[in-house]
Design a protein that fits this description.
The chain has a 7-stranded parallel beta sheet, with helices on both faces. A 5-stranded mixed beta sheet has the order 8-9-7-10-11, with helices on one face. The chain starts with a strand and ends with a helix. The model has no long low-confidence stretch (mean pLDDT 94). The chain has 2 domains: 145 residues, Rossmann fold (3-Layer(aba) Sandwich); 106 residues, Dihydrodipicolinate Reductase, domain 2 (2-Layer Sandwich). It has 8 helices and 12 strands. The relative contact order is 0.16. Helix content is 33%, strand content 25%. The chain is α/β, with parallel strands linked by helices and 261 residues long.
Length: 261
């Protein structure tokens, strides 16, 4: 059995992770972390039926006895929690989006750290990342690559971390090409440049997450799509990653490593 601490415990992802963890006989919840000032600080999580642990804003306290932290919060909070966890020898599963290159360097530079970092923990989505690279290498520059992503109105970053990862996969499939990255289009912009890759972001309602990669050729179009209706698939992937990570040596991994892609 592994023990996990869940950050952002009362948020949408925190609740999804808690629910699935309680259904998993191989997982025990060691602690819940929320931001300072949250009204649930000092209370038990409503999904726990009155059982401990209580929700705290003291990350170190919540991590006591934990093997892994599972974090789907925001970049700054994720880095702070990961720093505390790595100093305690606790592994980290980080599904936070919006991490910058310097954030990843900080995670990778933590001595002895063990982490799985992915902007999308969904098994299906990670298969899409792998397919994006493979198809890109097959079609080459004969097809135009465009990405469209849709998310709920409350999402704070754009493009989504998953859309950027799809973009990186396409670029990796044609590594020698001088790509031009375009984020949205407006006005009289002229014809599309041959080496453009476009990323468009749509926000509205309660859309959990949809991503489509288009390879548009002359006379045909190939579409690779992933649509999520529930956050449970992200939570499920995170728990799979946590179980996998505790058996690994120090290092920073991706869901590609977890799934053996």
């Amino acid at each position: 059995m592994i023990k996990i601490a869940i950050t952002g415990a009362c948020g949408k992802m925190g609740r999804a992770i808690t629910k699935l963890a309680l259904e998993d006989a191989d997982i025990e919840i060691a602690g819940f972390i929320e931001m300072k000032g949250h009204p649930m600080i000092g209370e038990t999580h409503d999904l726990m039926g009155g059982r401990p642990p209580v929700i705290t804003d003291d990350a170190g306290r919540a991590m006591h006895g934990a093997d892994v932290i599972v974090d789907f919060t925001e970049a700054k909070a994720s880095l702070e929690c990961f720093k505390i966890a790595s100093e305690k020898g606790i592994a980290g599963v980080i599904g936070t989006t919006g991490l910058k290159d310097e954030d990843m360097r900080s995670i990778q530079g933590a001595r002895g750290a063990r982490a799985v970092v992915s902007p999308n923990m969904s098994i299906g989505m990670n298969i899409l990342f792998d397919l994006a690279r493979r198809v890109s290498s097959l079609v080459g520059d004969a097809y135009d690559a465009e990405i469209v992503e849709l998310h709920h109105r409350w999402k704070k970053d754009a493009p989504s971390g998953s859309a950027l990862k799809i973009k990186d996969a396409v670029l990796a499939g044609q590594s020698g090409r001088q790509w031009i990255e375009v984020f949205g289009r407006e006005g009289i912009i002229g014809e599309r440049e041959k080496d453009e890759i476009g990323i468009m972001s749509i926000r509205g309602g309660d859309i959990v997450g949809e991503h489509t990669l288009y390879f548009a050729g002359i006379g045909e179009r190939l579409e690779l799509s992933h649509k999520a209706w529930s956050r449970d698939n992200f939570a499920r992937g995170a728990l799979i990653a946590a179980k996998w990570l505790v058996k690994q040596p120090a290092g920073v991994y991706s869901m590609k490593d977890v799934l053996g892609l």
